[in-house]
Amino acid sequence: MTKKPVTLTFKVDPALAEILRQVPNRSEFVRAAVLSALESTCPLCKGTGILSPRQRDHWAEFARNHAMAECGDCHEFHLVCHAGEAPGCGRGLEAGRPEEGEP
Hints:
- By secondary structure, this protein is of the alpha+beta class.
- It is 32% helix and 10% strand.
- The protein has a two-stranded antiparallel ribbon.
- A hairpin with a 6-residue loop joins strand 1 and strand 2.
């Protein structure tokens, strides 16, 4: 059984509406943009940009042994684990690749 597409509407400001009118296939463009955004959503806040009080508590605990660092190769920020007792945690993350002799 083939499922029918669902029409979804949303409001935009006039400037964005004018820009979108210039896009040849707006529906495909919007679908691709939404899927791309969903693939890049923060796993903790789910894209809201806001943590609940309990999430903040979990983050504070996590942050005790983790830090943000800039990759020396691509200059993107990533998490680095400083918990030496955790198996495999943090090995080679500063350089963005495993240490020598590791897979």
